Amino acid sequence: MRRTPGGPLPWLATLAALVAVGACSTPGEQLPPAESQLGDPDRGAALITDYGCGSCHVIPGLEQADGLVGPPLTSFGRRMYIAGNLPNNAENLQYWIREPQDVEPGTAMPDLGVPRVDARDIAAYLLTLE
Ligand code: HEC
User: Where in the numbering of this chain does the Cytochrome c domain appear (predicted)?
Assistant: First the structure.
């Protein structure tokens, strides 16, 4: 009896199912860490203040980042999803910061015209939040 058919696909499907199940029960353990190897978190922190993200978000470690319009960005490095939509990793977080209206048309977070290099550093800071 052939219990394990050849080829990598059945194995991958099993792994995908395990990851999906694990994602619900033990957040943070089944996905690689979202932290960014790229970008400058210190510059990102300064940029967050410049762009006024803190007028809408509670962001740990920053003065006057206590806005309640959007969700708090506490422990963002351990979040599974961005805006309940994109898996949380450095690339997706940069995309969200640059073009939230593209990711989720009509979202209450406006496109702030953040260029790529700034989004990279802002994401780097948010992903340091444990
Ligand atoms: C005018 C208010 C406003 C401003 C300014 C704003 N945001 Fe948001 N942000 C929101 C709202 C509202 C959401 C929730 C969007 C959704 O879930 O559809 C959000 C969602 C997010 C999320 C995902 C949160 C989660 O829990 O998944 C991140 C990350 C984020 N914003 C980062 C930023 C950054 C960085 C800036 C500055 C460059 C910024 N925001 C500026 C209102 C704002």
Answer: 39-130
